[in-house]
Structures are given as C-alpha cells and as structure tokens.
Amino acid sequence: MARKAKIERRTAETEIELELDLDGTGRSQIHTGVGFLDHMLELLARHGGLDLTVTARGDLHVDQHHTVEDVGICLGQALRQALEDKAGIRRYGHFTLPMEETLVTTALDLSGRYFLVFQADFPAPKIGDFDSELVEDFWQATAANALCNLHVLVHHGRNSHHISEAIFKSTARALRMAVERDPRAAGVPSTKGTLTC
Prior knowledge:
This protein has four helices and ten strands, in the order E-E-E-H-E-H-E-E-E-E-E-H-E-H. The model has no long low-confidence stretch (mean pLDDT about 95).
C-alpha cells in the first residue's frame, strides 16, 4: 500500500506544494527560495529514505520566517496523511549523529500527540543569510502538524552550520526508523488501539 501524500497550502504569505513518499529512495526536488532550507530538506530526504518534492513561493521580501515555518507545516501534514492510522509501523525512532565537532540525538514518537523539546544553542545568529532560530521554528511546525513527540538534543557543537545539518540528519534517521514497517506488528502499535489524537 502506497504511503504517499500531497499537500497544497496557499495563504497571503506563502504558496506551497509538497509531495512525500515514505517508501522512497531519498530523491528530492526542492525549490523554496531559501537556499539553506533547500539544502536541509535534501539532507532530510536522503537520510530519511524519503522521496520529497517541495515548491514554495513566499514573502521573502519580508523575511524567511513564513516560508520556513509553512514548509514545516506542510511536511507535518504530509507525514500524518501518508501514515494514515499508523498500523504496522515501529512508531518510535531515535538516532545519535556525529557531524565533525557536533553531536546530536533525536528521539521521536508518532503518538498522535504533539510535544517538542528542542535543546540547541547556535553560536552564530546567522548561517549565511539564514536565521539560526528558524531551525527550531521549522521543527516546531513539523512536529505540531505531524502530531508527534519530538526531542532534539545537541550534546555539543561549535559550528552553527554543522549543528543544523546534524539536527536534520539525526531527525531524518529517527523518522526513518519510526515509519518503518514492523513485520511483527500487524495493528496499531498502541494498547489504546489508536494513534490519532
């Protein structure tokens, strides 16, 4: 059964089209108008084993915030749509990833409930022309719309680019584990019998 989703979001601030295939090969076509975000989403697809297509047009004359946050919203909605009732998945995922001097752990639960813990300090306020604080805003929007518990912990790191990259890679690997089909579990992985709200 295909685990795919297509999301379209149109507001006065952004227009976004996003397509997701959970059982892809890591292929991506990303055009958001925010170069650093494009790079991070390419990493997410490759390390998550996802096929991901994103086209975004946002009010970049204002700043990058609306575009970054709204892409996160669409990604979260796509994850929720593609997983349907979540029957047969592992549900939990975790990964600790080294990126040169940086070490990041991500743990997540596709529980149907939202919670974010994001413990990351970025030494530089900017990564090129990208505001470092937007990394947290992106994952907050994704987790809130995917309805998952997401915990991101940066153990240490000096370079803000490396820290962001390690966060996206470790979260991609944790997500890959969580959405993986579990051959030993036919139903929904919960004693409640549901993982939706």
